[in-house]
From TrEMBL:
The keyword Zinc-finger applies. It comes from the Bacteria. Residues 11-41 form the Putative zinc-finger domain. The lineage of its organism: Bacteria, Bacillati, Actinomycetota, Actinomycetes, Micromonosporales. Signal peptide: none annotated. Pfam families: zf-HC2. Keywords: Membrane, Metal-binding, Transcription, Transcription regulation, Transmembrane, Transmembrane helix, Zinc, Zinc-finger. This is Putative zinc-finger. GO terms for molecular function: zinc ion binding. The chain crosses the membrane at residues 103-124. It comes from Actinoplanes regularis.
Length: 239
């Protein structure tokens, strides 16, 4: 007999199994089958209330019939503990399947919600007519080379670095001659200027100086170096 035929044959015995109408051999066969067959355990769960329902039916003789009472061998009926154990196993499997299904549903729902939120966020940030524009690109660092004033041998360069509070100025110069102290002036296009640094004379007439200004890097147009008498030694135009 094939496994399919065996399953069908044992499946048809479930009613008798619950009512105790099987002999010991069939009862043992069905016990073993129910241990491994989820379909038959499900059917057993569906049929489980039947014996109790039958107990509440009136006797056939009271209905005018002449059917003999059903004779069941007590030893043939499976024990309540055995039935309850099988049903408990089946219900546990159902609970596990339900839990797994719920987890899969929650995962799918979470992915959907995250995707919807991402799409919604994109709609919000892009509203207002057209695609969003990248922030304006402002140079973080600008390098300007010094040109000597008439009669001066000064050379070097100035490096301007953008800061939140303004601009940092780094100077690297040679050929600085004049009356110390020397001063660095930062000038704007409108003529306003700020002193960015001051330093003394060096034997080699060179200097590496760091200074600063409250002007933004985009506002600075010229860096001018003078001596203490105001004589211009050199200047660098920021482009």
């Amino acid at each position: 007999m094939s496994d399919l035929d065996e399953h069908g044959s044992l499946h048809r015995l479930l009613g008798g199994y619950l009512l105790g109408g099987l002999d010991e051999t069939d009862t043992d066969r069905l016990d073993a089958h129910l241990h491994d067959c989820a379909d038959c355990r499900a059917e057993l769960d569906r049929l489980a209330p039947v014996p109790e329902m039958l107990q509440h039916l009136p006797d056939a003789r009271h209905l005018g019939g002449d059917l003999p009472p059903l004779m069941v061998a007590p030893a043939a009926r499976p024990s309540p503990q055995n039935i309850e154990g099988l049903l408990g196993r089946m219900r546990a499997e159902k609970t596990r399947e339900t839990r797994n299904s719920r987890v899969r549903w929650l995962v799918a729902a979470s992915v959907t919600m995250i995707a919807a939120a991402a799409i919604g966020y994109g709609v919000v940030v892009n509203t207002g007519g057209g695609p969003s524009k990248p922030p304006s690109s402002v140079a973080q660092t600008v390098v300007a080379n010094f040109q000597p004033a008439a009669g001066s041998g000064m050379s070097g360069q100035a490096v301007l670095t953008k800061k939140a509070w303004g601009v940092a100025v780094s100077l690297n110069m040679t050929g600085i001659q004049g009356k110390a102290p020397f001063l660095c002036w930062v000038k704007r296009a409108d003529g306003k200027q700020e002193q960015a640094a001051v330093w003394g004379e060096t034997p080699e007439h060179t200097a590496k100086v760091d200074g600063s200004s409250s002007f933004t890097v985009t506002d600075v147009r010229d860096i001018v170096i003078t001596d203490s008498a105001g004589k211009v030694l050199g200047s660098a135009t920021v482009t």
